[in-house]
Design a protein that fits this description.
Blueprint: E1 9-12, H1 17-28, E2 34-35, H2 47-57, E3 61-64, H3 72-77, H4 79-99, E4 104-108, H5 136-156, E5 160-165, E6 167-169, H6 182-196, E7 200-204, E8 210-211, E9 213-215, H7 216-229, E10 236-239, E11 246-247, H8 248-259, E12 264-268, H9 283-286, H10 296-311
Parallel strand pairs: 1-2, 1-3, 3-4, 4-5, 5-10, 6-9, 7-12
Antiparallel strand pairs: 8-11
Helix pairs in contact: 1-7, 2-4, 4-5, 6-8, 6-10, 8-10
Bound molecules: NADP nicotinamide-adenine-dinucleotide phosphate (NAP).
């Protein structure tokens, strides 16, 4: 375990959901030498700017949370931008880290990089089966990021590796309904339904699809766990809750309680369900001794409080 709390860490994407939590967890664990740049201060798709930044700052650890993220409709409309931006961010940051002898780099992949299956996705199944078509530009870029880390380890011995997180949420989340993920989007919609006094709250599909969630803080704890303990490179580690699934209907019930919405949840069967089940096999990481700490209800409460404090109305 690395006990040098003064290690110079570049946290890329520090104002996003994962980045906000990583910043907090690093600080909580005594790491004080964290450098950050907003998107407007440093556009990671700009190779020269990234190379200059790394040459000047020479970070010892890099946590790459920055990515061009959006909803399915946005990805379908701008697929070239999604694939270009994400590949450019990964290539620029990983090459710059290599040139400047970064000791450890963690790249954030995604559970959605795995092929469609109802079985828990294991790391070795990344290239088996069929991948989702709607998300293709994002998936291709995520797989490329994982592979960049693998090949930089293989050719240069760089300690670059990846995590594959399940869905997560927390402070820093966007409540913009064109890009918000399921939990923040339901928190906002239900809180607005409560304010309007709506008698019914529609949920897309049957409510039966099963999903896996972690708090963004648990994602950050998982990342720090690996940065402190994992000595190799090239591998990727699923970062899920150990296979605890919840249906969309149950999730809506938890959000209803937290928000205090008194109306009735109804299911709009004219809308599609999406994948029936999405779950990671996180045995590889858990066998190293990591486990999540937060419970879903408490994490939803924290998200609702964040929404009420800061993001409401945005
Ligand atoms: N959220 C999930 O449920 C989930 C699940 C699995 C995997 N992941 C992965 O986890 C990582 C973090 O996701 P997140 O949800 O934390 O994303 P997020 O909240 O959208 O944050 C992304 C961050 O990247 C920054 N960024 C985007 N383009 C940039 C650029 N060209 N130059 C510099 N910074 C740029 C953004 O800054 P601006 O806001 O200023 O543009 C933002 O701070 C991503 O790789 C994502 O694919 C997320």
């Amino acid at each position: 375990m690395n006990s040098d709390k003064n290690v110079k860490i570049y946290l890329a994407g520090h104002r996003g959901v994962a980045g906000t939590a990583c910043y907090e967890i690093l600080k909580e664990n005594g790491y004080s030498n964290i450098i950050t740049r907003t998107h407007s201060e440093l556009d990671l798709t700009n190779q020269k700017a990234v190379f200059d930044f790394f040459a000047e700052e020479k970070p010892e650890w890099v946590i790459l949370c920055a990515a061009h993220i959006g909803g399915i409709a946005d990805k379908a409309k701008f697929p070239a931008e999604y694939i270009y931006d994400n590949l450019a961010i990964e290539m620029n940051v990983i090459e710059a880290a290599h040139k400047n002898k970064t000791k450890k780099l963690l790249f954030m992949g995604s559970a959605y990089a795995y092929p469609i299956t109802e079985e828990p996705s294991k790391e070795e199944t990344l290239f088996s089966g069929e991948h989702g078509k709607l998300d293709e530009p994002y998936i291709v870029a995520k797989i490329a990021g994982v592979k960049l880390c693998e090949y930089y380890w293989k050719q240069y011995g760089d300690n670059f590796f990846s995590v594959m997180p399940c869905c997560f949420f927390g402070e820093g989340d966007s409540f913009d309904l064109t890009r918000a993920t399921v939990v923040p989007s339901m928190v906002r919609r239900m809180s607005e339904a409560k304010e309007r006094g709506d008698e019914e709250f529609p949920i897309w599909g049957t409510g039966k699809p099963l999903r896996e969630f972690l708090s963004s803080k648990d994602i950050a704890r998982g990342c720090l766990f690996l940065l402190e303990r994992y000595k190799g490179g090239g591998e990727y580690f699923n970062l899920g809750n150990g296979g605890e699934l919840i249906s969309i209907a149950e999730l809506a019930g938890i959000i209803q309680q937290v928000v205090g919405y008194k109306g009735k949840l109804i299911f709009d069967l004219t809308k599609p369900d999406g994948m029936r089940k999405k779950v990671l096999d996180s045995t590889k990481l858990m066998n190293l001794g990591w486990k999540p700490q937060d419970c879903l209800e408490d994490s939803v409460k924290e998200l609702y409080s964040y929404y009420m404090r800061t993001a409401k109305g945005k």
